[in-house]
Amino acid sequence: MSACVWAACVCGTQICYCSLSAEILLLFSGINENVYEHVSMWFTGNMKQLLVWIQRNLLKERPELFVQGDTVRPGILVLINDADWELMGELDYQLEDQDNIVFISTLHGG
Amino acid sequence: MCQVEEEYHEQLERVDRLSLSQKCMKCKEEPAVVVVRAGDAYCRSCFRESFIHKFRAMLGKTRVIFPGEKVLLAVSGGPSSCSMLRQVQEGVGHNAHKKLRFLPGIVHIDEGGALGQSIEMRRKKTSDLQQMFRSTGFPFYIVPLEQVLDLPGSVLVAPSARSDRPDSAYKAAVDLFLQSGGGSDPAGPRQENGQESLLDVHESRTRLLEQLMDSVQTQTAKLDLLNTLRQHLLVHTARKHSYSKLMLGDSCTRLAVRLLTSISLGRGAQLAQDTGFSDCRYGDVVAVRPMREYSAKEIAFYNHLFKVPTVAVPNLETKTSDKSSIQRLTESFVTKLQTDFPSTVSTIYRTGEKLQTACRFSSAAEDSDRCLLCLSSLEPGAEEASALQATLLSERLSQTRGPLSSVPVEPEPAAVGRCCSSGPCGGADCNAGCSSSPTGPQVAGMRSLLCYSCQRTVRDMSSVHHLPPYVLSEAHRRQKRSAMKEQISQFLLDGAEEHD
C-alpha cells in the first residue's frame, strides 16, 4: 500500500505502528502528508482503545467516516501484522511491541 | 425472523471463534492470515494461489476472450482495477503456468475535470499512473474526461457485432493460434508508446465539463451521468485503437451494490447487462468483468500482501455522507449488512448471476430502439402490463388532469399555477411545456429516445443543452428521422418494411 500515515503509538516501552491506507487518507483533508510522524499519549491498550486514540489524535474532521460506534466503519478492513483482525480477536486484541496495524478502505471513494 | 430485536442472538454468534492459531483450511499447515468467506481462512500462499486461479478460471470458463485478441483494460487506479492489471501482467508473463494469450492495453480516464480538481493535482496523479503503466510494458492511453465533449456521434450507434460465434469457434481459434506459433511472442506487437500527451487539456473544455456536471442537480444523477460518459469514452477509445474487448475491474461487492442500485434507479430491465460478465450492448466492443468473483476484501488483502501499487483517486463519492445518493446509500446498506451477515454480498451477487445476458439486440435492433445514453434496448419485452407501462400511464394520468381538476396537486405548484390554471392554454400541451419549462421543448422530444432510468437522470439536469454535442446531435438526428418516418408512413406498404 502506497501512502500511509504512520503513527507510532507509544504504550509504555512498546511501540506499535499504525498506518492508514491511501484510500482512507482521501477522507481526511487534514492529513495528506505521505509520511506523518506522530508520537503521542501512552496507553495500555487493545484495539478498541487504539481506535479511540486515532479518532482523537489523527482524525479531527468527520470521524464518522472512519469509526462508527466503537468499531471501524463497515467496509474498512483492519490488518494486524498483515493478518486479518478477525483472526486476532478484533477489538479485544492487546497491542504488543512493534505491532503493525493497517487500515484499508474498500468503499468506493475511500 | 420478523422482529426488530431478535431473540436468538446466541445462534447467530459465530460457532467457532476464529484465532490466529487456526490453520489454513486448504493446506492445513500454514497459519491462516485472511478470512475470505465466513469461516474460510486461508494462509498467504493458498490465498494467492486461489486468487490467481480464479482469474484464469473466469476467463477460461466464459470463453469470451479469444487468443490473440486485443483487450483494453480500464484502470482507474483503484484497488480492483489495479489488481486486475496485476493478474493480466502475471498471466501474460513468460513464466506463467497457464498463459493468457491476448494482447492487453491499458486505458485510464482522468475524471479530475468533473470533480473540480486542480491542474497540479491531476498532473501528479497522471504521472503516478503513467509510471505504473510504463512498468507493465503494455501500451497505454490516459484520456481526460474532457474528450467526451469531442466524441463523434458514432459512439451512440452500435455497429452490429460480428455474428455470434458458436462455442466451437473458440476451440478453433485456440488451435489456429497455436499453429501459427502465436505463443512464441508473448509481448505481442508492442506498439511504440500508446500514450498521448493529453495532460494539457484546454481550460475552456474543463469549464464546459464543469458546467455539465453542475447542471445536474442531484448526486444520484451526477454519478449516473458520469458513469455513462465514462463508458462512452472507454468504448470510443477501444474502437479508436481497434480493441475488441474492454475489461472492467468491477468486483463482486461493487456489482452487488450496482445490482441493488440499478433496481432502485429503475434499470431493472438492464440489470443483466449492467452486472453480467459480458456486456455486448456496444456491438463491436464487448465489455467484460473478470473481477466479478472477488470480494472487495479479497482484493484489498491481495493488494496489500503482494504489494500491488494503487493510486488513490478521489471520486464523486469521496467524503460524502451515506445519504448523499442512491448509490452511496446502497453501498452503505450492503456493507453494513455484510459485517453481520458475511454472505450478503455473495447472495446478492449469485442472484444477479442468474439473470441472462442475451445479446439479442446485437444484430436485429435498430439504433432508434436503443436508449440514447446507456444504449440499452428501449422496449425490453414491450409487454402491455409491465411496470414501465404502469409508471408511464400513471404519469400520463397525473399530467392530463389540467383542465378537469380544479386543485393542482403538482409537485411544483408555483410553476403550474402560473401557467395552467390561469393561462388560456389548454391541458396536455401546456403541461408538457410546464414540466420541461427549464429546459425548453427539446427535452420532451428527447425523453422518447431515453430509457426510463436515463429519463430520470436527464430530468435532474437544469438544461440538456449542457450535454456533450455528440449526444445532442444524435438526438436531433433521431428526432428528424422519426419525424420523417411519420411523414412518409402512409406511403409505406406495411410495418415490416419500415426497417429499411
TrEMBL record, chain A:
PTM (free text): C-terminal thiocarboxylation occurs in 2 steps, it is first acyl-adenylated (-COAMP) via the hesA/moeB/thiF part of MOCS3, then thiocarboxylated (-COSH) via the rhodanese domain of MOCS3.
Taxonomy, superkingdom: Eukaryota
Record PTM 1-thioglycine, positions in chain: 110
Keyword terms: Cytoplasm, Isopeptide bond, Signal, tRNA processing, Ubl conjugation pathway
Coiled coil: none
GO cellular component: cytosol
Keyword match Signal: yes
Pathway terms, separated by semicolons: tRNA modification; 5-methoxycarbonylmethyl-2-thiouridine-tRNA biosynthesis
Cross-linked sites for Glycyl lysine isopeptide (Gly-Lys) (interchain with K-? in acceptor proteins): 110
GO biological process: protein urmylation; tRNA thio-modification; tRNA wobble uridine modification
UniProt-annotated location(s): Cytoplasm
Signal peptide start and end residues: 1-18
Pfam families, A to Z: Urm1
Function per UniProt: Acts as a sulfur carrier required for 2-thiolation of mcm(5)S(2)U at tRNA wobble positions of cytosolic tRNA(Lys), tRNA(Glu) and tRNA(Gln). Serves as sulfur donor in tRNA 2-thiolation reaction by being thiocarboxylated (-COSH) at its C-terminus by MOCS3. The sulfur is then transferred to tRNA to form 2-thiolation of mcm(5)S(2)U. Also acts as a ubiquitin-like protein (UBL) that is covalently conjugated via an isopeptide bond to lysine residues of target proteins.
Similarity-based family: Belongs to the URM1 family.
Name of the molecule in the record: Ubiquitin-related modifier 1
Taxonomic placement: Eukaryota, Metazoa, Chordata, Craniata, Vertebrata
TrEMBL record, chain B:
An individual GO BP term: tRNA wobble position uridine thiolation
Pathway of action: tRNA modification; 5-methoxycarbonylmethyl-2-thiouridine-tRNA biosynthesis
Cross-referenced HAMAP family: CTU2 (MF_03054)
Assigned keywords, A-Z: Cytoplasm, tRNA processing
Designated name of the protein: Cytoplasmic tRNA 2-thiolation protein 2
A GO CC term attached to the entry: cytosol
Family: Belongs to the CTU2/NCS2 family.
Species in which this protein is naturally found: Cyprinodon variegatus (Sheepshead minnow)
Compartmental location: Cytoplasm
Database matches in SUPFAM superfamilies: Adenine nucleotide alpha hydrolases-like (SSF52402)
Signal peptide residues on this chain, from the entry's feature table: none
Domain of life: Eukaryota
Function: Plays a central role in 2-thiolation of mcm(5)S(2)U at tRNA wobble positions of tRNA(Lys), tRNA(Glu) and tRNA(Gln). May act by forming a heterodimer with CTU1/ATPBD3 that ligates sulfur from thiocarboxylated URM1 onto the uridine of tRNAs at wobble position.
Keyword Metal-binding annotated: no
Gene Ontology MF term list: nucleotidyltransferase activity; sulfurtransferase activity; tRNA binding
